[in-house]
Amino acid sequence: MVVLDTHALIWWTLDSVRLSEPARRLCDQIPQTGGIVSAISLWEIGLKVKRGQLDLGLEMDDYVKRLRSLKGLEIVAVDVEHWLGNLRLPWDHRDPADRTIVATAQLRDLPLVSIDAAIRAYYPKTIW
């Protein structure tokens, strides 16, 4: 099982050639081994779409419907435990989405697929 950062989710589902080879191998195993996406990634994607910074090629609701249909992929709600995990991180990083995604991976003790250098420097189980 693996947690996907927002960009890893987008690239895996829409443009997998942008993933590194190790990241692509992990993502390709999600139907068998499972994958987790924090619901905060949907918020992050939706904001980028609204601002014209991202074109999914389909409506946001349709993209989420597509994600929900992917075998092995679980979209997890950001609940009290995730927010508390976010707040407990001894990490000077201001992005609430990044903090929540890292907290999600940490709470479940799972690897995290991310190209983000700040995340990779902080969370030792990050794979790219």
In total, how many beta strands? 5
CATH architecture: 3-Layer(aba) Sandwich
Distance between the termini: 15 Å
What is the number of helices?
8
CATH H level, superfamily name:
5'-nuclease
The CATH topology assignment is: Rossmann fold
Radius of gyration: 14 Å
Count the domains: 1
Which structural category do the helix and sheet elements fall into?
Answer: alpha/beta
Largest β-sheet summary: 5 strands, parallel
Strand percentage: 5-15%
Estimate the mean pLDDT confidence. Answer: 96
Oligomer: single chain
| CATH class placement | Alpha Beta
Order of helices and strands: EHHHEHHEHHEHE
Judging from the principal axes of the Cα atoms, what is the shape?
Answer: globular
TL;DR?
With 128 residues, the protein is of the alpha/beta class. It has helices at 6-14, 21-28, 30-33, 39-50, 60-69, 80-88, 96-108, 117-122, and strands spanning 2-4, 35-38, 73-76, 112-113, 126-127. Helix 6 crosses helix 7.
